[in-house]
Amino acid sequence: MTTLTARPATDLDILTAAVRAATARGADWQDTADRVAGALREHLPSPGQLLRPDQLVGEPGTSSGHMLHVEPDGSFSMMAIVWQPGAETRVHDHVTWCVFGVLAGAEHEDLYTLSDDGTALIEAGANPNPAGEVSGFAPPGDIHRVRNLGDATAVSLHIYGTDLDRVGSSVRRFYDLPIRG
User: Fold this and answer.
1) Which of 13, 82, 85, 177 has its CA 20 to 30 A from that of 21?
2) What InterPro entries does this protein map onto (predicted)?
3) Residue ranges for the binding site?
4) Residue 26: pLDDT band by 50, 70, 90 thresholds?
């Protein structure tokens, strides 16, 4: 007789179950982002629990995304992003709610609003997000840019309320507008 044993649950399995429970409540996007952020805060993994050492290397000024999980019903996706020193995104917003947790290093987030006439971005704040920081947001009002201003590699875990395998990106729109202080 052969005895079958289930593989032990990983930290990613436990986090996925917590995110699944948080998204199953049918709340609005901001409430869902807040619930998912709470789940991530409780189960924030280390980079070594999610990525191999070779996935942490890269050229200065670059970032790389590593898909970790796409929920079978398409309700959320989880991606680890490795930010080398000097890496930055374009200013953008998202198609759905987003939650991120910084696992190593620091992510600097610049926040913007759109001017009343839509011709410029207005600086709305900045967040230096160190390791351990977790935040969630939902459109509208989610215009931002993410940068690694430090000398060390930063790693973050992003959870998006969509099927990234299907839609390809969480970005709704890029903003190539002048920035006013």
Assistant:
1) 82
2) CDO_1, RmlC-like_jellyroll, RmlC_Cupin_sf
3) 92, 94, 144
4) confident
